[in-house]
Amino acid sequence: MHAVELDNLVKRYRKNPKPAVNELSFTVSEGEIFGLLGPNGAGKTTTVGVLTTRVLPTSGRATVCGVDVIGQPTRARQLLGVVPQRNNLDRSLSIRQNLLFHAAYHGVGRAERTRLADDILERMGLTDRAGEKIEMVSGGQAQRVMIARSLMHRPKVMFLDEPSTGLDPQARLFVHDRIRDLKADGVTVVLTTHDMDEAAKLSDRVGIVDHGSLLALDTPAALTRGLPGSTTLSVTVGLAGQDPERVEAALAELSGVERVERIAQGPTGPPGGMPAGMPPGMGGGAVPPEVAARIAAAAASAGPATTGQFRLYTADEPAVVLPFVLKTLGDIGTEVSGLSIGTPSLEDVFIHLTGRELR
Amino acid sequence: MTSPATALRTFNAVLWRDVFVTGRELVPFLAQVLVQPFFTLFIFGKVLTSMGYVGEDYAAILLPGVVALNGFLGALQNTTMPLIMDFSWTREIEDRLLAPMPIHLVAVEKMIFGAFRGVIAALVMVPIGFLILDNVSWPASAWIPVIVIVILGSLVGATIGMTIGTLVTPRRINILFAVIMMPLMFTGSTQFPWMGLEHVRWFQVVCALNPLTYVSEAMRAELVPSVPHIPMWINLVVILVSIVLFGAIGIRGFLRRAID
User: Fold this and answer.
1) A4-224, superfamily in CATH?
2) In chain B, whose CA is at the least distance from the CA of A11?
3) Are B190 and B69 in contact (CB under 8 A)?
């Protein structure tokens, strides 16, 4: 049985012709940490809303631990825990009372909920503040209290919506550790985020959604591996007396190299491994013509470039083509002075799939 | 499906939370519901009667109406205001929407609790009225029917409060008082017997549309039966129909706000 199962889920809001969630299907296995990644407005929160019985889908099916969240919402609520994006703690109660009342709503007996509250407050580092009013707690503490609260009825599946947005690094790391603890305790975790590092670090598998549809679903490592032409090898070479065009052509002929890009040339090229930045022509518009002319004159008087940097886009692991690159460069008599390998991040995958335009 | 026992247990826990919180905020709560009716009783029942502008027997007509008003309006405000806050700003209610009980029961709980606060607001007003006003006494035999009427009147207020609270957007909260609360207060036949309006026919018709009129009339039917009043059975039928009607509209509104 899957911890979470979505089957052709569609959600259309009344005033919006475009569906917020569009035929979304995926499953989450028991005990897994599943990251739902997507830009703002991609449909992540709506999807979690359906799974946590707060949003009624237009069509499709959704289950949590085999329980239909649409047909049996009350039953489903006993199995799932929710940590929302915004602080929705009960401001009339203390931290401890928030936990105790939550457990009471879920029918946890008095003795047991007292014991459980003490235990969870301790684990979340909140014991000292247990009696404080919610108004007094900071954002990071509120997040911890909300996680603590959701644990009070021992859910089987936890939904965390943007769990570390707006937290300082310490609080973030603490939340990340607690999420890993959940997994260790056998709780399935579904988290939404637009933070790539967080998704890559925590998730066993990541689903990337945009415009309500699933674009990719795999482990973070497989997703970055699958990104076409993003694995790069940058070489910096000495160009004494060499024609850069010839070097470029020689490198391009190698098998396994999809494309070669000449990044910079000059007496002192940028250090290897620096990202391509802007293509040569791009900054031109900002430079006044007379300045550009003077730069060109200076470059000409310096004679031919002494070093050059090339970026090779490889089909496979850069390590595979590296020996051939070195051999070719040696054959044509150029000296290698710098090498670096660039692997794509989840962010590259994300941008590749969802585009660059702002939401 | 979850058993009714689970839902009932959850319902009780949710109700207990509200009672628990009220217990700790008793003083601000009483200040909220007592100051305005205190001045109404003092000015109209004491100052104006002692100056001779108003007949001495007016105090006996005014007190039942003010008690009815306090129950009705107390219940209405204590249902509407927390709802508007909850749905727009604090989102506190989400923890209860995620509790294992049908969501319409959360709405029912909010109305019952609002009515509970209304009943307290009404009953606390009674001894205050006796202290301020001269020559007012209620027969012991009337107490049980009066308490029943106060409870029913508070339930009407709470169901209307649920309807308003789920219909009014937070941005409109400031016109809520001017456009809805004030007319409800002054067309509820609380300060005058409805039967006495026959010379202002249009206003009598307007007052007949306000459910509060029937609560006030029912109170006076018990406490000052000599003053002409709407027959008790009509009062009770209108009160019960209002509870069912506004309760249903309120629950629908609540579900719309609670589930996307």
Assistant:
1) P-loop containing nucleotide triphosphate hydrolases (3.40.50.300)
2) B260
3) yes
